[in-house]
Amino acid sequence: MSDTSINTRADTGEAGFGDYFALLKPRVMSLVVFTAAVGLLAAPGGVHPFVAFCSILFIAVGGGASGALNMWWDADIDRVMKRTQSRPIPSGKVTPDEAMAIGVALSGFAVVMLGLAANWVAAGLLAFTIFFYVVIYTMWLKRWTPQNIVIGGAAGAFPPMIGWAVVTGGISIESVLMFTLIFMWTPPHFWALCLFMKSDYKDAGVPMLHVTHGHRVTRNHILVYTILLAIIAVGMAFTGVGGPIYLVTSLVLNALFLAGAVAIWRRDETVAERDGYKREKAFFGLSLLYLFLHFGAILAEAALAPYGWGGW
């Protein structure tokens, strides 16, 4: 099959496979898959590899369905914001009705198939995650309160809990802590992005913190949440998913993350504008590495545990 039959054909304006796949927010889906897989592999016990594969697949489909429904509802905002104008709906490649139909169909498919493949506790958590992201965050919080990303961040924090539930059929302190790690990481990660993408949300009328309360308040919030995040992240080293590898990784990452947050907090807006928000962009980039390496360390502890190397 040629590339022109798979991807968008610029000369015809017709949607291709790439446009429909873009509805699923593949970058976000990759984070969902990774954290869910870590939750599954770190959980005590185990499941058949085929069950594990199918479960992660259906969790990914559920995450993608949420993305499609988010794009359907936020099409008006996406048309205004520069970083989202090329998405399938604003660009005219996919209609809103198509996006909604795909999102609803994939949501039902993912939840039912996860229940059949694993258990209904995991399926219930997936269903609640989709509902929370689409209804609570996208339809309600996002356009109503500057704390939207704080509360709404819970939606992106559920995947490791779902992966854990696939194996155990329940919830534990370890899965809740993995949830909390992502939950507390989301605000400083996203607010750092907002600092150097400042005009997009204002133009779209989205009440992000930096729009409603200014950059100084946003910088203060980034520092406070980073301090709280560091306490939780390092504390996880002494739980069932932690160990020496995780502890060393977390100490180094949180030292760097705290230093970055303090640097942002000290910054004057005039200086930041002058250097093109260099430190804010560096902090945002570090935040991506921060989450990946924390969950990578949890995975390493779980992988080495059978050989007596992981955990305490």
Write out key terms for the chains shown.
flat; heme biosynthesis; Protohaem_IX_farnesylTrfase; 312 residues; single chain; 2 domains; Tetracycline Repressor, domain 2; disordered N terminus; mainly alpha
Q: How are the SSEs ordered, and which strands pair?
A:
Blueprint: H1 3-6, H2 17-22, H3 26-42, H4 49-73, H5 75-80, H6 96-117, H7 120-140, H8 148-152, H9 154-157, H10 159-168, H11 173-196, H12 198-204, H13 209-212, H14 215-235, H15 244-266, H16 269-274, H17 278-304
Keywords: Cell membrane, Heme biosynthesis, Membrane, Transferase, Transmembrane, Transmembrane helix
Organism: Shimia aestuarii
Enzyme class: transferase
Describe the 3D structure.
- It is a single chain.
- The chain is mainly α and 312 residues long.
- The chain folds into two domains: 17-170, UbiA prenyltransferase (Tetracycline Repressor, domain 2, Orthogonal Bundle); 172-312.
- The protein has 17 helices and no strands.
- The protein has helices at 3-6, 17-22, 26-42, 49-73, 75-80, 96-117, 120-140, 148-152, 154-157, 159-168, 173-196, 198-204, 209-212, 215-235, 244-266, 269-274, 278-304.
- It is flat and about 55 Å long.
- The protein starts with a helix and ends in an 8-residue tail after the last helix.
- Interacts with CtaA.
- Pathway: Porphyrin-containing compound metabolism; heme O biosynthesis; heme O from protoheme: step 1/1.
The quaternary organization reads as single chain
**Percentage of β-strand residues:** under 5%
What is CATH's topology name of the largest domain?
Answer: Tetracycline Repressor, domain 2
**Domain module tally:** 2
Biggest sheet, open or closed, and with what strands and sense?
none
Radius of gyration: 20 Å
Topology pattern, helix = H, strand = E: HHHHHHHHHHHHHHHHH
Q: What fraction, in percent, of the residue positions are helical?
A: over 70%
Number of helices: 17
Shape: flat
Low-confidence parts: 1-12
Number-wise, the strands total 0
- In the CATH classification, which architecture of the largest domain applies? Orthogonal Bundle
CATH superfamily of the largest domain: UbiA prenyltransferase
What's the CATH first level of the largest domain?
Mainly Alpha
